[in-house]
Design brief:
This protein has 60 residues and is mainly α. The protein contains 4 helices and no strands. Helix 2 crosses helix 3.
């Protein structure tokens, strides 16, 4: 089954933001804990990141 990449980005962003808020983390705190830049986390949460999700799977 093929899944639309835009849909996956939406699901990822909603879940990360929801988990962050539920855990009472700011974007700064979560980005530090995840060892990613704050701007990348903001891009993920706003669904504006340009990285292809298929490439992320190859990294794992």
């Amino acid at each position: 089954m093929l899944i639309n990449e835009d849909y996956l980005k939406e699901v990822l962003s909603v879940n990360i933001k929801s988990a962050r808020i539920k855990s009472n983390f700011t974007q700064d705190e979560l980005s530090e804990k995840a060892d990613i830049s704050n701007s990348f986390l903001k891009d993920i949460e706003s669904r504006s990141f340009k990285y292809e999700l298929s490439k992320l799977y190859q990294l794992v």
